[in-house]
Amino acid sequence: MQHRTIAFPAYSEYSNATLLAAFTAGAARLRASLAGLSDAQCHTRVRGPTRWSIHEIVLHIADSETQGTFRIRKVWSDPPATWPIFDQDVWAKELDYAASGAPARERALTLLELLRERTAPLFARATDADWAKWGTHPEFGRMTLRNLLELYADHVERHIEQVLESRRLLGHPLEMDAPLPRRLY
């Protein structure tokens, strides 16, 4: 998190239905991207000493999704909303993602699955008026409910790409088609 406001990027080439399908499939896709990896492989910072391991990525996704779930509900129920800063690097350090084991990773995957199961029906029933509801993101400024769907559908896919890159570097490549081929930013 840079703690400065930048314009939220356009992601309009994807329909609500396409974004919702990616959002809904994200947790299962993340779980599938980890198939066959050992705990040691998941903890290896194969992309470099300052880059997160696969394990840290999974824990980050669950914490980010917790923030996202709050933002979505806040904008849905109480617009306009202002969201607190979520500094992912501080959370990773202070919560010591690297020190936790496979059970923490499994709980993070389960949490992501449960949060997505609870949130997808909200997106599925959104009206035009709901999509226009907005809140203030600490980095991007004004964001609509549609922008939140874009952000969180893309977020897991971005990290799946990092997991797949790590797998290639570990010598355990896995091919997965991306439901959203272009990254949001």
In short:
With 185 residues, the chain is mainly alpha-helical. The chain is built from 7 helices and 3 strands. It is 58% helix and 5% strand.
> Radius of gyration over alpha carbons?
16 Å
Question: In terms of per-residue confidence, which ranges show pLDDT below 50 for 5 or more consecutive residues?
Answer: none
> Structurally, how many domains make up the residues?
1
Distance between the termini: 13 Å
- What sequence of helices (H) and strands (E) makes up the elements? HHHEHHHEEH
Residue-averaged pLDDT: 95
SSE class: mainly alpha
Describe this structure in words.
There is one protein chain. The model has no long low-confidence stretch (mean pLDDT 95). The protein has helices at 16-33, 39-43, 54-77, 88-94, 102-124, 128-132, 145-170, and strands at 81-82, 134-137, 141-144. Helix content is 58%, strand content 5%. With 185 residues, it is mainly α. Helix 1 runs parallel beside helix 7 (145-170) and helix 3 (54-77) runs antiparallel to helix 7.
Which terms summarize this structure?
7 helices; 3-stranded mixed beta sheet; about 180 residues; Four Helix Bundle (Hemerythrin (Met), subunit A); globular; single chain; mainly alpha
SSE blueprint and pairings:
Elements: H1 16-33, H2 39-43, H3 54-77, E1 81-82, H4 88-94, H5 102-124, H6 128-132, E2 134-137, E3 141-144, H7 145-170
Parallel strand pairs: 1-2
Antiparallel strand pairs: 2-3
